[in-house]
Amino acid sequence: MPRQLLFLPGPVTVAEPVLAALSRPLIDHRGAEFAAMIERITAGLRPIYGTSGEIVLLGSSGTGAMETALVNLFSPGDRLLSCAVGAFGKRFAAIATSYGCVVESLETPLGAALDPRALQTRLEADERRNITGVLLTQNETSTGVANDIAALSPILRAHGAVTLVDSVSGLGASEFLMDRWGFDAVAAASQKALAAPPGTAMLALSERARTRLAGARIGRFYFDLARAIESAHLGQMPWTPPISILYALDLALARYNERGMNAAFERHARYAAAVRAGLQSLGFTLFSQPGAHSNTVVAAYPPSGVAPAALLKILREDYGVVLSGGQAELAGKIVRFGTMGEIGEADLIAAMGAIELALTKLDVDVAAGRATGATIESLSGRVTSGVA
Ligand code: PLP
Questions:
Q1: Helices 261-281, 370-379: inter-axial angle, 10-degree rounding
Q2: How far apart, in Å, do the first and last CA atoms of the chain sit?
Q3: How far is it, in rounded angstroms, from Cα 262 to Cα 267?
Q4: Which of 184, 217, 171, 213 lies closest to 75, judged by CA?
Q5: Tens digit of pLDDT per residue, the chain (388 long)?
Q6: d(Cα 271, Cα 342) in Å, to the nearest integer?
Q7: Which residues, 6+ apart, have CB-to-CB distance to 262 below 8 Å?
Q8: Which of 45, 90, 89, 96 is nearest to 67 (CA)?
């Protein structure tokens, strides 16, 4: 297969040494070496989550961590407020509904971030504290929208509901202060900003979340957190773990922390701004509203007359540049450009050049160097005129 440059919203391009770690010989998952690795991974995740609480690793994708949080913290009939701002928020709500929770939705127009005032109004109206839990998405991958969860935190604390956060496409790309913000369960996964292969999810828990485990009456077995915590304290996972993926995650985290969190936050923000500048210079229209842009996924409508599928096909087949299309009601309408993983500035410029070429093949009149120029200007900190 020809080389591909992945700009998906996950899985992402993984560094060669991290890929090479996958081929290391397997070890005893009940032995001391494995325990040391689990300890290293957990210690490496702790500052990224901003928590001194429990972190468990799960042999699943991110959805498994979301399901784990729900089934271990709630009971059938519990009333939950879903603050979905796109497809992944709706998935969170759908998991809760499938286990018998009563889910109310706080509606937000697609492309917008959750309005803190709307959340405040709804929670203040819940004087009898009927709402047991609130479901949030830090970064909504389907729309390229980031919620300002720091601003939501005092509102949630004032109400007191248990707060579950999907940070699958957020953790590692922007600041997360779980303990300070007071969230109870935060789900993430290996294949996004942490730049490891897919196959491991992680869930951080507050002390309050731990105390709820015994009382939650939704059935569970594989995703039983009491077992996962008990095993974690032995440096193990309850079931046969994805050892090879953990090797890769271990190394990816070491590389991440060596470069530093702040460098990662800055890089994702700078790359996303550059992608927005490049796409807008070609007549793409951002899907996310100003002030709500994600650092990890740029979602945009192509210029008028350009079908996303045709553009994505040329990019992939002719140039090995792999972007993603829209999901659910946005399928066939938008393209999504991910900024996570082992990519550099030159890769972004190459991708923009490929988009210029692909548009030309689709008979769009593109001045050569327009998007690459806008991207370079943005990356180098020069202001690009006319770009929000
Ligand atoms: N939540 C968000 C915000 C995501 O972006 C994704 C995956 O793209 C998921 C949840 C689901 O994660 P997974 O595909 O790892 O199950």
A1: 150
A2: 38
A3: 8
A4: 217
A5: 778 999 999 999 999 999 999 999 999 999 999 999 999 999 999 999 999 999 999 999 999 999 999 999 999 999 999 999 999 999 999 999 999 999 999 999 999 999 999 999 999 999 999 999 999 999 999 999 999 999 999 999 999 999 999 999 999 999 999 999 999 999 999 999 999 999 999 999 999 999 999 999 999 999 999 999 999 999 999 999 999 999 999 999 999 999 999 999 999 999 999 999 999 999 999 999 999 999 999 999 999 999 999 999 999 999 999 999 999 999 999 999 999 999 999 999 999 999 999 999 999 999 999 999 999 999 999 755 444 4
A6: 12
A7: none
A8: 96
Angle ∠(319,321,327) on CA atoms, nearest 5: 135
Ligand 1 atom index nearest CA of 64: 16
Paired sense of beta strands 335-338 and 324-325, if any: antiparallel
Ligand 1 atom closest to residue 198's alpha carbon, by position in its atom list: 15
* CB of 78 closer than 6 angstroms to any ligand 1 atom: no
| H or E element, residue 55 | strand 54-58
The span from the CA of 303 to the CA of 285, in Å, is 7
10 lines ligand 1 (CB under 6 A): yes
Tokens 């499938």 locate to 98
For residue 36, give both structure tokens.
């040391």
Quote the CA–CA distance of 150 and 26 in Å, as a whole number: 41
Sign of CA dihedral 140, 339, 366, 318: negative
Instruction: Measure the CA–CA gap between 105 and 288, rounded to whole angstroms.
Output: 20
Measured in angstroms, how far is the CA atom of residue 377 from the centroid of ligand 1? 32
Q: Is the Cβ–Cβ distance between 150 and 142 less than 8 Å? A: no
